[in-house]
Amino acid sequence: MNIQMVDLKGQYKKIKSEIDSEMQKVIDSTAFIKGPKVEEFAQNLSKYTGGSNVVTCANGTDALQIALMALELEPGDEVILPVHTYVATAEVIALLRLEPIFIDVHPKYFTIDVSQIEEKITPKTKAIVPVHLYGQCVDMESIMKIAKQHNLFVIEDTAQAIGAYFTFADGSKKQAGTIGDIGTTSFFPSKNLGCYGDGGAMFVQDNELAKKCQMIANHGQSVKYHHDIIGCNSRLDTIQAAILDVKLKYLDQYSKARQNAATVYDELLGDIKEIKTPEVAAYSTHVYHQYTLILNDSIDRNEMQTFLKENGIPSMIYYPVPLHHQKAYRTDKNESFPVTEKLSKYVLSLPIHTELTSAEQEFIVSKIKEFLKY
């Protein structure tokens, strides 16, 4: 079997005619930068997410940086974020000379542990960046309550959870990325909504703040050659927008395919006591950007990963080195984050994507059981 972590080629083949047609239209128009398809995609994504202002940009990291710039935080201001996340979340905070304040994650859901946030808030705290990790939402209702009490901004990192829904206590629902002041996402090819290069976007609730984000992404200008604020050059090119506009029509279908694959894994792995399958919070749907296991400490993860690789099965570790152990982000605080430290040693993500077949999953799990001598 030719098993992939993400089968981009198989997905492309199913929509090849649509993708090729839209790409050819852009090439024929030669409107490669800021072509009309960029705005069309932004409008369609806005409708999909429930009406948020959508500001596109070059990648998900830029989206986070632009969001922080738009909120006018000052050097030395503190920004709270989970310690178990990809480096980009902390990177942009440090790049802007803000102070990243790490919080451990929930032992069941791997997202920021909301119960630990308030004890880290100081007079310097200005924002919280909750990360919707692996495909499900943070407890946003609690996050927003804390933010309101302490007058903090909320920037949602939605790079792994576009299309997931959060359910509030009153039964109302909102999509991940549309609850805080600004939501950010990535269109990296392997994402649930991915382009064929790089791309990103922001979901902004306030109209004026959205205009500011747009200006920052465009060299600080709203009128050409008139630069009112300091900005950067971050844009989604037209070909990528055309690709994303096609794939957006299939996003719910893609989410369903991933959810179905997760259900199959849950059933096949259910009798293995040494493995803990993902748990889904009652307040969130899960779109399974990753299907991440926690292995028992009796399992040698490196040996298991090598065994799977030898049998043609890829796997990934998200993330092997916690942020507080990274040289660039170490401090003299000697902080300990036990949940994250455990996860870094025992998590393992299995292949999950829109083209994954039940036969492939059965083969994967059969090899896991063979390794564990089941």
Describe the protein.
- The protein has 2 domains: 8-248, Aspartate Aminotransferase, domain 2, CATH 3.40.640; 251-372, Aspartate Aminotransferase, domain 1, CATH 3.90.1150.
- The protein is built from 12 helices and 14 strands.
- It has helices at residues 8-14, 16-29, 36-48, 60-70, 87-95, 140-150, 207-217, 238-248, 251-269, 301-310, 338-346, 358-372; strands spanning 53-57, 78-82, 99-103, 125-128, 153-157, 165-167, 173-175, 182-186, 200-204, 221-223, 226-227, 275-276, 291-295, 347-350.
- The strands form 4 sheets. Strands 1-9-8-5-4-2-3 form a 7-stranded mixed β-sheet, with helices on both faces. A 3-stranded antiparallel β-sheet has the order 12-13-14.
- Helix 6 links the parallel strand 4 and strand 5.
- Helix 4 packs across helix 5 and helix 9 (251-269) packs parallel to helix 12 (358-372).
Question: What key attributes describe this structure?
Answer:
single chain, 374 residues, alpha/beta, Aspartate Aminotransferase, domain 2, Aspartate Aminotransferase, domain 1, 2 domains, seven-stranded mixed β-sheet, three-stranded antiparallel β-sheet, globular
